[in-house]
C-alpha cells in the first residue's frame, strides 16, 4: 500500500469512527435532538415511539405502544346491570323519567330532579346474591326532587313501573344543586342594571365578567324559606385565570327558583382590581425557555394489566370489589373482599366506602367572605363536578377508564366520559425485604417489589381540584388518599406590599402578589366506611398505649408502655379526638372469628391528615359541620344515615348530621357498624400556591390486624430481568 492509499484509508477510518460516535450520541439524547425515535421492543411484541409533543421544538415523553389492555368499550345504549349495586343505566334513567311523567305532581307542578341514582337493595339481599342466589334483586331508583318548592324523596320500581314511595321533607335544608341551578344563577347579575353600573364604574367590561355560584350556608331565619345563592364575579381580561382578578366585595344575592336578583352589596369600593399578570397557567402562555424537562418515564406491562374489569366489578390479585360513579359521592367502592392465601376463600372486608362530605370553611368574617363555608358534596355534588380524566397525565398508560351515567334536572340521562380510571402502580416501593447482616454468616437477600391497584377520580369544584385515590395492596391493605390542587380562592386588597399593612390590620391570609391575598381555610373530607370484617357483627376497639412506671425493678428500666383494649359499648364510647401524647390504635374486629392462636380477626384505621377544627361549636358553620368535631365516629348501620352533613345539606341548620345521629348513643358492640373518619387539612396559603397550587396530599389506611395467620404475601416471587422488556433506541 502506497502512502496516498494509506492516508486515504486512515481518513475513511476516522470518518467512520466519528460518524459512529455521532450516531451513538444522537440516539442516547433523543429528547434534545430527535422528533421521532423508535424503541425496538419486538421481543415482547411492543413498540415504543418517542414523539415531539411540546411547542417550540421542546420534546415530550416516550409514547409507547405496549400491549394494549384487553378492555372493551361499553355501549351505554345497550348496557345492562349485572351486579346488584351497578348504577342505573341510560335506559333505566329514561324509564324513571317516563314513570315520573305519568305522576300528577310532575305533570302539573313545577319540578326539578336533583338526584337520580340506584336505590340499593337491602344489604342482606346483596350478600345473598354474592353467595350464589340466582337473579338480581329488583331494580329501583332513588329520586330526590324539588316539586312545587318542596324537597321530595321518591323510590321508583323499574320492574313494576310505578312510584313506591313519595316522602316530602319537613326538615331544614334543600337538595344538592343541579348543574342547571348553578349555570342559571351566574347569568342573573348581568341582567341587573345596578350590577352592570357598578362594574362599569370599576373599569370592568361586561364581556370580561366571569361569575361563580357560592353556597351561603345558614346564618338565621332571614335566609329561610327560599333557595338562595350568592354570586361573586371576576374579570377575565388578560388571563383565563379569572380567579386572580376578583371584583372584591361585590356580592349578589339570588333566588334560584324565581330567578330574581334580591340584593346587591358592594363593600369593595376602595379595592382595586388585581392586575392578574403572569397568572395564566396554560402551557401556551408560559414564557420560553421552559424549565428543562426530565427524561421521559414509562412503566411498561408487556403482558398487559393484571386486573380485569367486568362492568363495574374489578378483580386484581387477591382483591375483588365493585366501583360505582356517583353524582354526590364521586366514587363508591363496595363489596370489597380479599382472598385468603391459605384457604383460597374470599373474605369480606368493606361493604361500602365513599366520600360522604367535604367541609371547607374560610377564615374571614367580613361581609363578602363570612358565608364561604362550603359543603362540596352535599351542596355542589362531588361527582357532578368530577371531570373527565386526561390519559397519560391524570392516569398512566394501560389505565382503564370508566364512564359515569348521570341525569339532568329534567331526567334526561347523559354520559360523563372517563370519570374514573383504574391502573396498576409501581413506584419502586418495597413490599417486604430482609438482608442478613455479615456477622450471622448467612448470605441472604430477599426483596419483593410493591405493586398496587389504584381507583382514581378528580373533581373540580369551581376553583379547587380534588384527587381521590383508593389504593389496594396485595397484603390486604387499603390506602385512601386525597390530593388538593387547583386555584386558591383569593381576596382583593388595597395593599401592594406588606410594608403598607398596619399592625392592627387583619389580612385573614397571606399576601401573594400586588393587591392579592390568599385567604386561610380548612378542608375536611369525611369518609363513610361500612366495614364488614368476615361478616356484619363487628366491634370497635380503642387500643390505648398506656405508660407503665417501674419502681425498684430487677433492671435499670424505669418505664415502658403496654396496650389496653377498650371495646366501645355505645356510640359515645367511639367519639374519638386524637391526642399526640395519648396515642391509640383503632381496630374494627369480628369477635366471633379468631385466628389459630386466638386473636379476633380485624382491620385497623391508620390515621393521616389529622388537622382538627378549632372553630366554636356554636358557630353556625360548625353547627352544620359538626361531623368534624371528632376525627372518628362509629354508628350502627342505618340505610338512611349516609351523608355526614345530612340528606338535605343546602341551607341546612345542622339538625340532621352525623353528630346528631351519634349523640343518640345507640349500642354498637357486636353489631353491624359503620366507621367514619375525617381527613383534615389546615391551609395557610403561601406564594408557591400562586397562581396554581402544586398538589398536596394526605390519606389514611385500612390495615389488616390479625386478619391473616401470617404475612399474606410471603409466597410472592421477586422480579427478574426476564420479566421485563428491554428497549433499545433506534432511528425511526
Automatic annotation (TrEMBL):
Contains 1 topaquinone per subunit. Residues 175-273 form the Copper amine oxidase N3-terminal domain. Residues 83-166 form the Copper amine oxidase N2-terminal domain. Its EC number is 1.4.3.-. Keywords: Copper, Disulfide bond, Metal-binding, Oxidoreductase, TPQ. GO terms for molecular function: copper ion binding; primary methylamine oxidase activity; quinone binding. The active site is at residues 376, 464. It holds the Pfam family Cu_amine_oxid. Residues 298-713 form the Copper amine oxidase catalytic domain. Topaquinone (TPQ) is generated by copper-dependent autoxidation of a specific tyrosyl residue. GO terms for biological process: amine metabolic process. The modification 2',4',5'-topaquinone is found at residue 464. SUPFAM superfamilies: Amine oxidase catalytic domain, Amine oxidase N-terminal region. InterPro entries: Cu_Am_Ox_Cu-bd, Cu_Am_ox_TPQ-bd, Cu_amine_oxidase, Cu_amine_oxidase_C, Cu_amine_oxidase_C_sf, Cu_amine_oxidase_N-reg, Cu_amine_oxidase_N2, Cu_amine_oxidase_N3. The keyword Metal-binding applies. It comes from the Eukaryota. Its cofactor is Cu cation. Belongs to the copper/topaquinone oxidase family. This is Amine oxidase. It comes from Wollemia nobilis.
Amino acid at each position: 500500500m502506497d502512502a496516498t492509499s494509506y492516508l486515504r484509508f486512515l481518513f475513511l477510518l476516522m470518518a467512520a469512527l466519528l460518524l459512529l460516535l455521532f450516531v451513538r450520541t444522537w440516539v442516547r439524547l433523543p429528547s434534545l435532538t430527535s422528533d421521532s425515535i423508535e424503541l425496538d421492543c419486538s421481543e415482547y411484541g411492543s413498540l415504543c415511539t418517542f414523539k415531539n409533543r411540546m411547542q417550540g421544538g421542546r420534546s415530550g415523553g416516550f409514547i409507547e405502544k405496549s400491549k394494549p389492555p384487553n378492555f372493551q368499550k361499553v355501549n351505554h345504549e345497550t348496557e345492562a346491570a349485572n351486579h346488584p349495586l351497578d348504577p342505573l343505566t341510560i335506559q333505566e334513567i329514561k324509564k324513571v323519567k317516563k314513570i315520573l311523567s305519568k305522576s300528577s305532581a310532575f305533570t302539573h307542578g313545577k319540578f326539578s330532579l336533583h338526584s337520580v341514582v340506584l336505590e340499593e337493595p337491602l344489604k342482606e339481599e346483596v350478600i345473598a346474591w354474592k353467595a350464589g342466589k340466582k337473579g338480581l334483586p329488583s331494580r329501583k331508583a332513588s329520586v330526590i326532587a324539588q316539586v312545587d318548592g318542596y324537597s321530595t324523596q321518591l323510590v321508583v320500581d323499574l320492574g313494576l313501573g310505578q312510584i313506591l314511595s313519595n316522602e316530602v321533607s319537613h326538615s331544614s335544608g334543600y337538595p344538592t344543586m343541579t348543574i342547571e341551578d348553578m349555570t342559571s344563577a351566574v347569568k342573573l347579575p348581568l341582567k341587573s342594571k345596578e350590577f352592570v353600573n357598578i362594574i362599569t364604574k370599576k373599569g370592568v367590561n361586561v364581556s370580561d365578567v366571569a361569575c361563580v355560584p357560592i353556597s351561603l350556608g345558614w346564618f338565621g331565619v332571614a335566609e329561610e324559606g327560599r333557595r338562595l345563592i350568592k354570586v361573586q364575579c371576576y374579570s377575565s381580561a388578560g388571563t383565563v385565570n379569572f380567579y386572580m382578578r376578583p371584583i372584591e366585595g361585590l356580592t349578589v344575592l339570588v333566588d334560584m327558583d324565581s330567578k330574581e336578583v334580591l340584593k346587591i352589596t358592594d363593600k369593595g369600593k376602595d379595592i382595586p382590581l388585581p392586575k392578574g399578570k403572569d397568572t395564566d397557567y396554560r402551557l401556551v402562555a408560559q414564557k420560553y425557555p421552559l424549565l428543562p424537562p426530565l427524561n421521559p418515564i414509562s412503566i411498561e406491562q408487556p403482558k398487559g394489566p393484571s386486573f380485569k374489569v367486568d362492568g363495574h366489578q374489578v378483580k386484581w390479585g387477591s382483591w375483588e370489589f365493585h366501583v360505582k360513579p356517583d353524582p354526590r359521592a364521586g366514587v363508591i367502592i363496595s363489596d370489597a373482599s380479599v382472598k385468603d392465601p391459605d384457604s383460597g376463600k374470599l373474605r369480606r372486608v368493606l361493604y361500602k366506602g365513599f366520600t360522604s362530605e367535604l367541609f371547607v370553611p374560610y377564615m374571614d368574617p367580613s361581609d363578602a367572605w363570612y358565608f364561604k363555608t362550603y359543603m362540596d358534596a352535599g351542596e355542589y355534588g362531588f361527582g357532578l363536578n368530577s371531570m373527565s380524566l386526561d390519559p397519560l397525565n391524570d392516569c398512566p398508560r394501560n389505565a382503564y377508564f370508566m364512564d359515569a351515567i348521570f341525569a339532568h334536572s329534567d331526567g334526561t340521562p347523559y354520559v360523563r366520559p372517563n370519570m374514573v380510571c383504574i391502573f396498576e402502580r409501581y413506584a419502586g416501593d418495597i413490599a417486604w425485604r430482609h438482608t442478613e447482616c455479615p456477622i450471622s454468616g448467612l448470605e441472604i437477600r430477599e426483596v419483593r417489589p410493591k405493586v398496587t391497584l389504584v381507583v382514581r377520580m378528580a373533581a373540580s369544584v369551581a376553583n379547587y381540584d380534588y384527587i381521590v385515590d383508593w389504593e389496594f395492596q396485595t397484603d390486604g391493605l387499603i390506602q385512601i388518599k386525597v390530593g388538593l390542587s387547583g386555584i386558591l380562592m383569593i381576596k382583593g386588597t388595597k395593599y401592594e406590599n406588606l410594608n403598607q399593612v398596619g399592625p392592627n390590620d387583619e389580612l385573614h391570609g397571606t399576601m401573594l402578589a400586588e393587591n392579592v391575598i390568599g385567604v386561610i381555610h380548612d378542608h375536611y373530607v369525611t369518609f363513610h366506611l361500612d366495614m364488614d370484617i368476615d361478616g356484619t357483627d363487628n366491634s370497635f376497639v380503642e387500643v390505648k398505649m398506656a405508660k407503665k412506671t417501674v419502681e425498684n425493678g430487677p433492671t435499670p428500666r424505669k418505664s415502658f408502655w403496654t396496650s389496653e383494649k377498650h371495646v366501645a359499648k355505645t356510640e359515645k364510647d367511639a367519639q374519638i379526638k386524637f391526642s399526640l401524647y395519648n396515642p391509640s390504635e383503632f381496630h374494627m374486629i369480628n369477635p366471633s372469628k379468631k385466628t389459630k392462636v386466638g386473636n379476633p380477626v380485624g382491620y385497623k384505621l391508620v390515621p393521616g391528615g389529622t388537622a382538627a377544627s378549632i372553630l366554636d361549636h356554636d358557630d353556625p358553620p360548625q353547627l352544620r359541620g359538626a361531623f368534624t368535631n371528632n376525627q372518628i365516629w362509629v354508628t350502627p348501620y342505618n340505610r338512611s344515615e349516609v351523608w355526614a352533613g345530612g340528606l338535605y345539606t343546602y341551607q341546612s341548620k345542622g339538625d340532621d348530621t352525623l353528630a346528631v345521629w351519634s349523640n343518640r348513643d345507640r349500642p354498637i358492640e357486636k353489631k353491624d357498624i359503620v366507621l367514619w373518619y375525617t381527613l383534615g387539612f389546615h391551609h395557610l396559603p403561601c406564594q408557591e400556591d400562586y397562581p396554581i397550587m402544586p398538589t398536596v396530599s394526605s390519606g389514611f389506611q385500612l390495615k389488616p390486624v390479625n386478619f391473616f395467620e401470617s404475612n399474606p404475601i410471603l409466597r410472592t416471587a421477586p422480579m427478574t430481568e426476564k420479566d421485563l422488556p428491554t428497549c433499545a433506541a433506534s432511528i425511526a
